[in-house]
Design brief:
The chain starts with a helix and ends with a helix. The chain is rod-shaped. The protein has three helices and no strands. It has one domain. It is an all-alpha fold.
Length: about 180
Amino acid sequence: MCLVIWGLLSTTRLGSPWSTLWVSLGRVKELSTEDIFLLYLGTILREMGEIRAEMARLEQRIDEINKRLEQKIDETNKRIDEVNKRIDEIYTRFNEIYRRFDEVNKRIDEVNKRIDEVNKRIDETNQRIVETNKRIDSVVDVLARRIEETNQRIDALQVTLLEIKKLLLELVKSK
């Protein structure tokens, strides 16, 4: 019975001092079931203690990792908030620029309307100038003909006056 239990215990994870103790105990005396149970129970309790210590160490490590993660999450959330604020500021500025752009476009449209009105007036004025120039040209032509006619009459009158002068001179000489 001891050899069967020894085989089971030797397959479990025992430290080398335990193995040595088992070997020495196995050679010296045959262990009772109660002794084997107590040794096995001791081994189980020791391993449970090691497992608990390992679990406590792992839980502590998990807590540390969780704290670091929480810090990272908080930092990331802060950065996200800052980025969101910057996005909001940029969006606000964009809206302001877009509003100004609309205002400028409206002003440009108004100026273009005024320019169109001024161009229309200029075209009307140019048309009047063309009509006035045509009238002036026609009046100048009429006046030029009248002046020419008047010049011809003046020339004819001068010729007549010269003839009258000659006749008067002849009359004076003849008297």
